[in-house]
Write a structure and sequence with these properties.
Layout (H helix, E strand, L loop, with lengths): L14 E5 L4 E7 L4 E8 L7 H19 L5 E5 L12 H15 L6 E4 L1 H5 L4 H11 L3 E3 L8 E3 L5 E3 L7 H14 L2
Parallel strand pairs: 1-4, 3-8, 4-5
Antiparallel strand pairs: 1-2, 2-3, 6-7
Helix pairs in contact: 1-2, 4-5
Length: 184
């Protein structure tokens, strides 16, 4: 009996979730039930605003994805949405945010999914949604009260890329949520 030249072994699908922002973009590389790498691409220390901030974030994000998150099979990126409600979001700011989403989409992946916030997280309050995401991946967290976002306790086997201030974990947990949504 002749053996095949090449045997394809089943492989776990890896998804890179990206929660874009012009100042601090959250990233998470996950399988269906495990988070492997998390990170924050941040330009906050430069105090850039507007188009300068967006340009800086696009450059940093592309570099960060290609350097630290290149093993994903798919990239899932939140795409901004204007809800048409006065006072909620300036449409010009949403255009800048869309450019950051586009930079992530152009980072070299052939399987790119853009999703609007309501598609992947619905209308669930952020604090509740974050608890569900952290529980799904088996992470412990510090509960900061019913209406406040919980603070994750990162497992020792998860690699962290970049410095993540306590107040910026919400971007990373959203990126984890994008992975969870894509892998359902």
């Amino acid at each position: 009996m002749k053996l095949p030249d090449r045997v394809e072994l089943p492989r776990t699908k890896l998804v890179l979730g990206v929660d874009p922002d012009t100042q601090a973009t959250g990233l998470a590389l996950c399988s269906k039930d495990k988070v492997l790498i998390v990170g924050l691409a941040s330009i906050e220390r430069y105090k850039a605003r507007g188009l300068n901030a967006t340009t800086g974030m696009c450059n940093l994000l592309g570099y960060t994805i290609r350097t630290h998150f290149r093993n994903a099979d798919q990239i899932v990126i939140e795409f901004p949405q204007h809800y048409g409600v006065r006072g909620r979001a300036n449409p010009n700011n949403l255009m800048l945010l869309a450019a950051v989403s586009g930079a992530a989409a152009g980072a070299g992946y052939s399987d790119v999914t853009l999703t609007r916030p309501g598609e992947w997280k619905g209308q669930v309050p952020k604090a509740i949604h974050h608890r569900r995401i952290l529980e799904h991946y088996g992470w412990e967290f510090k509960d900061n009260g019913k209406k406040k976002v919980p603070t994750p306790i990162v497992p020792d086997d998860v690699k962290i890329v970049g410095d993540v201030p306590a107040g910026r974990w919400k971007e990373i947990v959203d990126a984890m949520g994008l992975c969870k949504w894509a892998l359902q």
